[in-house]
Amino acid sequence: EAGVAQSPRYKIIEKRQSVAFWCNPISGHATLYWYQQILGQGPKLLIQFQNNGVVDDSQLPKDRFSAERLKGVDSTLKIQPAKLEDSAVYLCASSLGDRGQNYGYTFGSGTRLTVV
Amino acid sequence: AQSVTQLGSHVSVSEGALVLLRCNYSSSVPPYLFWYVQYPNQGLQLLLKYTTGATLVKGINGFEAEFKKSETSFHLTKPSAHMSDAAEYFCAVRNAGNNRKLIWGLGTSLAVNP
Question: Which of A18, A35, A106, A111 is the most buried (most CB within 10 A)?
């Protein structure tokens, strides 16, 4: 089966600019996650979708970050405006159901964002 | 609150030597435990997991881990390191209760020397 697709792989922007990331999960996976991984740290969950509904966005900086999964399939994560501290790898993952965190889930290759 | 501690941010071994990556957790209820590997410029890949049952868990690429409740540990081992094992390894814990978030360790970078 095809894996989790993410694009772009790399992005460099200036602070205060906007940026968007795209994720296409594994076909049939109802649950989609966006993680932020800062260099030297473990992943941090930003938002979890179950189909097109938000299950958990408690750690999403909502003043600048937004995410949507309108048709319950692919998803976009946006940052507007970006700050230097947003430099990180943004990982998308998907799982069959919301038990993904019980049994592990599949990650994409990530988007490496550098804010200068 | 749950937490994960990975002892040693960098581990270096010789090719063919034993790999031991340490992970200790804190959890007030039986945990679900995971090890993930991240190769350079790639996403995270599940190596193995413990949910219930046998405490010695075998994963991909010859890795295994043993859940020791008395020591609150879930150390990752491999008898003989390969050059291709060089990567970042993350331990994670999920509480078996209603809070379903994964709590991640800071990672251990494994270097394998020829």
Answer: A35
